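Researcher: Sequence recovery benchmark, item below. Answer with residues only.
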């Protein structure tokens, strides 16, 4: 029987191979609500920003991954204060200027946008498209400061003319396992 050992490319201190990233921070969000093309409410909120990435470092300077970035905030729904979330789930890419930390990097993502009130059973999640652009600095191996601009346009499933445009500026501290 012939056996060979190969590197698993996971958690070996190289960005090349499997990556898993978690981030937490703050955001500033603007929601613009419209019906039949006419804006009827604009709100500015702030709250918790979260980031999740899972994928692969193609090289030590370029990574592709599934990304979920979300902005959590309080808003009024059915005359009550509720917890809401606006975010992106999609495909992201990061390019690091250096093959190892410290390094500046740029990132982008495209995918599905959503606006949800998770604890309300009578609220249907609004979906649509979203994009995210940003950059950051890996100041120590695995530890990164990131700034992203997330934009999502979503509509109610029962009424495509009831739309929400969300834009969020997020500041997060991320830990990337690689």
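Model:
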């Amino acid at each position: 029987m012939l056996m060979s050992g190969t590197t698993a490319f996971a958690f070996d201190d190289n960005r090349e191979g499997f990556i898993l990233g978690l981030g937490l921070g703050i955001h500033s969000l603007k929601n613009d609500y419209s019906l039949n093309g006419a804006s009827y409410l604009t709100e500015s909120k702030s709250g918790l920003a979260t980031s999740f990435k899972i994928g692969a470092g193609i090289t030590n300077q370029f990574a592709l991954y599934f990304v979920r970035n979300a902005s959590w905030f309080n808003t009024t729904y059915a005359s009550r204060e509720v917890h809401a979330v606006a975010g992106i789930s999609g495909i992201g890419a990061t390019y690091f200027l250096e093959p190892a930390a410290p390094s500046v990097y740029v990132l982008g993502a495209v995918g599905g946008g959503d606006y949800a009130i998770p604890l309300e059973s009578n609220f249907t999640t609004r979906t649509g498209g979203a994009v995210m652009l940003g950059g950051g600095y890996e100041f120590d191996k695995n530890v990164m400061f990131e700034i992203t601009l997330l934009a999502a346009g979503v509509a109610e499933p029962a009424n495509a003319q009831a739309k929400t445009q969300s834009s969020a500026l997020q500041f997060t501290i991320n830990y990337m396992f690689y």
